[in-house]
Amino acid sequence: MTGLNKVVQSYQDAMAGLVDGMTIISGGFGLCGIPENLIAEIKRKGTKSLTLVSNNCGVDDFGLGVLLPERQIKKIIASYVGENAEFERQMMSGELEVELTPQGTLAEKMRAGGAGIPAFYTATGVGTLVAAGKTERQFNDRDYILEQAITGDFAIIKAWKADRFGNLVYRKTARNFNPMAATAGKITVAEVEELVEPGALDPDEIHTPGIYVNRVIQGTFEKRIEQRTTRASGES
């Protein structure tokens, strides 16, 4: 990687600098738009005591779920955790610290962190366990709770296209949490399906500007489906 060229050639280089105890923000929703190869590299490195921030923790044998068997995750901040039996076991046994966060609040925590906003008020969670221990204020006769923004040592994201400057385009619902996650990491690593020449991306179509991205790597992806529901031929 030289000058403005942010492309790296190996996943080892992509995740260089990751050490035990760091916080990683990961894009993705379920198994859609997840940085599956960057996650696999974290597993290969064996990095432990990680705090993971993601919508969910994948499934038992794919996505962030592959980091659970060797206890690489110390804590996870997520909005949904219902597809992973090992996750459930570790949470119920007290081996894994879990901070459940409403989905919209989690997205805003990432966005605020990337924008340099330390905290924000939201009505989501008022009067529930989510509000426990948090500052409450009233604005225009409505109650709000104060939520702190999130930043990470690394942000790992998946995009459809990139140029060597790190400008990114996501594809349809695979965009999900990736744009917010991309802004909130001290080091943001994007793995992409296609690398294009500078100037090939229409500036009006770029979802994440390269200013937020430190490293780009092109990969191949399994794109596993989390749940497949079908019906017999002829059913209405």
UniProtKB/TrEMBL annotation:
GO MF entry, a single one: CoA-transferase activity
Keyword terms, alphabetized: Transferase
SUPFAM superfamilies: NagB/RpiA/CoA transferase-like (SSF100950)
PANTHER family reported for this sequence: ACETATE COA-TRANSFERASE SUBUNIT ALPHA, KETOACID-COENZYME A TRANSFERASE
Protein's name according to its UniProt entry: 3-oxoacid CoA-transferase subunit A
One Pfam family hit: CoA_trans
Source species of the chain: Colwellia chukchiensis
